[in-house]
Amino acid sequence: MESPESRTDGSSCVEPTQEPLLFGLPDDIALFCLARVPREYHTVLKRVSRRWRDLVCSEEWYAYRRRHNLDETWIYALCRDKHEQVCCYILDPNSSRKCWKQINGLPPRCLKREGMCFEVLGKKLYLMGGCRLSEDATDETYCYDASMNTWTEGSSLSTARCYFAFEVLDEKIYAIGGLGLSSSVPYSWDVYDPWTNNWKSYLDPNIVPGIEDSIVLDGKIYIRCGRSSITSNVYVVVHEPSSGTWQHADADMASGWQGPAVVVDETLYVLDESFGTRLMMWKKDVREWVPVGRLSPLRTRPPCKLVAIGKNIFVIGRGCSTVVVDVSNAGNMGGFMVSSSMPKLTSNDEVISCKCLSI
């Protein structure tokens, strides 16, 4: 009988042994060591060997770092430059240099579009929808893998839309309202499931046009739709996941949502830019808005966007000017909040949207 280790043609049936990640160590121990390398050096790790590159770009690496609280959060800012062209910048807030760097390679088809969605799910950024003066709303989606630093075309939206709200809830992306090719678009929303790589479309008359901002709070999506033409008040609707419907939010909560918002530890913060820049906090236990403090006009460059990492709120304005406020220790000095700032870009780029991504 022929031995399983040999054939009459001289070829071997034995699979070649895979080289270990680290010589002399089992791969699980090697992963334990390599996963503790700071994120800013992951590009260097990918240059060592093909196995290291595949590991750093893998879901296994991403899941391991998250499971062991090793993941680090960077900020991504979608901007528009003086040539009315879209660009994207990245900030590592833990780096000693703390400077914004541009991401190259954005899909050429979306560089001149307006009203696009910019959202994070897992270790990927999604750039969706949008329109131009010479182009109707589109359903195109592009995906940026942050670990691989590559853009690819993603699954198209169910509905072509622009100037819409976008949030992640229960590990799914919601694309809500906005404008599109039919009169029903402002009253519809699409939901993307990454496990099936498909979108599903829904309809609800309580969603209204004129979307200005959105947040996720207490497991629900809130959308600020601007001022009602009837009451001149800010109009806010909330999505109830249990029923899959949209309802009007309480007027007292809606009344203080006058600017960009962010949620920190299930507490809603809003930057009021009507007279300078003032940070407000929604105290849901007593149903009141209370001022946290003012930010120095020498540091902020409205209009701004907000993101949060831990207890720190990052206020990002024109030219990616960045002010950091620790809301767990929000002291005041001379009437203004104590904060730190980071160098801005030499340009005056307008910030369209900001998101955090952790690996």
Describe this structure in words.
By secondary structure, the protein is mainly β. It has a domain at 27-66. 9% of the residues lie in helices and 40% in strands. It is built from five helices and 28 strands. The protein has helices spanning 27-34, 42-46, 50-56, 59-67, 251-255, and strands at 73-80, 86-91, 101-103, 117-121, 124-128, 141-145, 150-153, 161-162, 165-169, 172-176, 179-180, 188-193, 198-203, 213-217, 220-227, 234-240, 245-248, 261-264, 267-272, 277-283, 288-295, 305-309, 312-316, 322-326, 332-333, 336-337, 340-342, 350-358. It is globular and about 65 Å long. The model is unreliable at 1-8 and 10-15 (pLDDT under 50). This is F-box domain-containing protein. Residues 23-60 form the F-box domain. Keywords: Kelch repeat, Repeat.
What distinguishing features does this structure have?
359 residues, mainly beta, 5 helices, 9% helix, disordered N terminus, Kelch_FKB95, F-box_dom, F-box domain-containing protein, Kelch_1, kelch repeat
Can you give the helix content as a percent range? under 10%
Give the overall shape, derived from the CA principal axes: globular
Biggest β-sheet, characterized?
4 strands, antiparallel
Alpha-beta classification:
mainly beta
- Mean pLDDT over the full residue set: 91
